[in-house]
Every structure is written in C-alpha cells, then in structure tokens.
Amino acid sequence: MADDRDTDRTTIVETDGGGSGGVVAVVLLIIVVLVLLFLFRDQLGFGGKDTNINIPDKVNVDVNTH
C-alpha cells in the first residue's frame, strides 16, 4: 500500500525583501535632487557669487516745519 510509506514534503516561500528597495529608491532620488539643486543654484537664483551690499555714505533728510 502507498499509504504506509512516509513522504517528505518541502514548501518554498519566496519573499521580495520587505519593501526595502522602495525606501532606497526614495533616498537616492532625494540625494540626486539635492545634488542637482546644488549644481544649478546660480541659474535658479539660490546664492549668487555677488554678495556686495551698497550702503550710501550720506542720507539727506528734509524736515519741513511750519
């Protein structure tokens, strides 16, 4: 009879790693955006090379009294 013999059975469960690949992709995307912003900051208007502030030597104030 076939029911008298022991039969070994193996079950294989495959997993995709728990979604850590998506987190890595988001972090890499943020890093790429920050690097691009740093490289093109002059064209975007973030922090140009000219940091001179012009302050006048004298301010004329006219006070009219009646």
TrEMBL record:
The chain crosses the membrane at residues 20-40. Keywords: Membrane, Transmembrane, Transmembrane helix. It comes from the Bacteria. This is Uncharacterized protein. It comes from Sphingomonas alba.
